[in-house]
Design brief:
The protein has 444 residues and is α/β, with parallel strands linked by helices. It contains 21 helices and eight strands. α3 (45-61) crosses α4. Bound molecules: guanosine-5'-triphosphate and magnesium ion. Guanosine-5'-triphosphate binds next to α5.
Length: 444
């Protein structure tokens, strides 16, 4: 997420940290570079200008110049100002507290509306609420079918009325929801290439006919300032209650995320970080600022782990790890759990300090797949007692998994090294208290 901005800011602050002492001049020089980095990330120029002025004022007004670690202090001021820019406090979605609560999802073509509708439905389902996905896009031929597929995949209900206009579909959906104990109605509206009067009129009409609790705009963060302008236009015409930033996992430069709140005044409520239904996070200004500044985001990481990992299993796993009773069956299990948390690169990027080290290193998920294939070609006995794997077994496993004996050897070697490491950890368990991550992930 925002890799290039993070790298640039990191480089700028590194220079500053190298200087024992700060002067008014190098604070100003630094902030000029920060401003440049923000502009290159497609941050709105007024937002960048005001941001830099605020940081500079704070830095020169406080005792930064005389502090022991001026570089650190500067990073803290930048972080705090960035949190303010992103909206200070997290703003939650309207609670699902009625029968039904209604969310309308709107945005330009391809911004990620239908995907977001599915994500919200899953989120509701995980809270034991009953969602209803409503197809209110009657213009794009496959749109209704697409939403139905999303609904089927998630095992949630889908609503559409053939041959009717979107406002009527939405109104009927709500009365259906009332009769059928639906908790959350999610309206998936049509997209357009540009903001046009026809679309706005339609959305306004839906707002008239249906009592909507949350009007969400999906803003594609890859489109930078365009996303900001689109948000402002939508907000002007249909009064949004929140923005969902989509495609934060791609090579978005950060401009949309950093400018939308300030330019529109509308809170960012959600962050979409992938194509899968579970790739959705509530938007937290402080965590986002930490990620942009390369400080990681351990809180989101832990939350993700808690959402997708079976906690009882995790506790058992931790116990096994520390007693060095961890076998290949557990290994397979652990890999599956990790996969549920989303793309490996995203996860590693949230660990403080790791994001930077990973720069340039491709985390190859195929490697994980290959390891899993090798383990799957072992018999249960071999998985439990890897030391019985001799030459002929290795050959069989290699053949069965479409790998070379060398790869099998390599995995066995890595595994045995890991076991050794954990048995050391086990012996030093007391020392390690508080170091292990929730979710039973090995201590890092
Ligand atoms: N990488 C990534 N892809 C996303 C994300 N959200 C949506 N997409 C992809 O973007 C494309 C468009 O998503 P849709 O949800 O169909 O967008 P839409 O706004 O409903 O599009 P229209 O209905 O045609 O206006 C799809 O290929 C999605 O898989 C995201 O957060 N990350
Ligand atoms: Mg759609």
């Amino acid at each position: 997420m925002f890799g290039s901005l993070t790298d640039k800011l990191d480089g700028i602050f590194k220079q500053l940290r190298g200087r024992g002492k700060l002067t008014e001049k190098n604070v100003k020089d630094t902030m000029r570079e920060v401003r440049q980095a923000l502009l290159e990330a497609d941050v709105n120029y007024k937002v960048a200008r005001d941001f830099v002025a605020a940081v500079q004022e704070e830095a020169l007004g406080t005792k930064v110049l005389e502090s022991i670690e001026p570089g650190q202090q500067m990073v803290k001021i930048v972080h705090d100002e960035m949190v303010k820019l992103l909206g200070e406090k997290a703003v939650e979605l309207h609670p699902i507290d009625k029968h039904p609560t209604v969310y309308m999802v709107c945005g330009l073509q391809g911004s990620g509306k239908t995907t977001l509708c599915g994500k919200i439905a899953l989120m509701a389902k995980r809270k034991n609420k009953k969602p209803l996905l409503v197809a209110a896009d009657i213009y794009r031929p496959a749109a209704v079918q697409q939403l139905k597929m999303v609904a089927d995949q998630l095992g949630v209900e889908h609503f559409h009325l053939e041959g009717k206009q979107p406002p009527e579909i939405c109104r009927e959906a709500v009365s259906y929801a009332k009769k059928n104990f639906v908790d959350l109605v999610i309206l998936d509206t049509a997209g357009r290439l540009h903001v046009d009067t026809e679309l706005m009129a339609e959305l306004q009409e839906i707002q008239k006919q249906v009592e909507i609790d949350e009007t969400l705009l999906v803003a594609d963060s890859m489109t930078g300032q365009d996303a900001v302008n689109v948000s402002a236009q939508f907000h002007e015409q249909i009064t949004l209650t929140g923005v969902a930033l989509s495609k934060l996992d791609g090579d978005a430069r950060g401009g949309a995320a950093l400018s939308i709140r300030k330019v529109t005044g509308c809170p960012i409520k959600l962050a979409s970080t992938g194509e899968k239904p579970s790739d959705l996070e509530p938007f937290h200004p402080d965590r986002m600022a930490s990620r942009i500044l390369g400080m990681g985001d351990i809180v989101t990481l832990v939350e993700k782990a808690q959402e997708s990992i079976d906690m009882d299993k995790a506790a058992q796993m931790q116990e096994k790890l520390l007693k060095a009773q961890f076998d290949f069956e557990d290994f397979l299990d652990q890999m599956n759990q990790l996969k549920k948390m989303g793309p490996l690169e995203n996860i590693l990027g949230m660990i403080p300090g790791i994001g930077k080290q990973l720069k340039g290193i491709q985390v190859d998920e195929r490697d994980m797949e290959r390891m899993a294939a090798i383990v799957k070609s072992m018999t249960i006995e071999e998985r439990r007692k890897p030391n019985i794997i001799d030459g002929s077994r290795k050959k069989r496993i290699a053949k069965g998994s479409g790998n070379t004996v060398q790869s099998v050897n390599q995995l066995l070697k890595q595994f045995s090294a890991m076991q050794k490491m954990f048995s050391q950890f086990g012996k030093n368990k007391k020392k390690l208290k508080g170091l292990s991550l929730p979710g039973g992930m090995p201590p890092i």
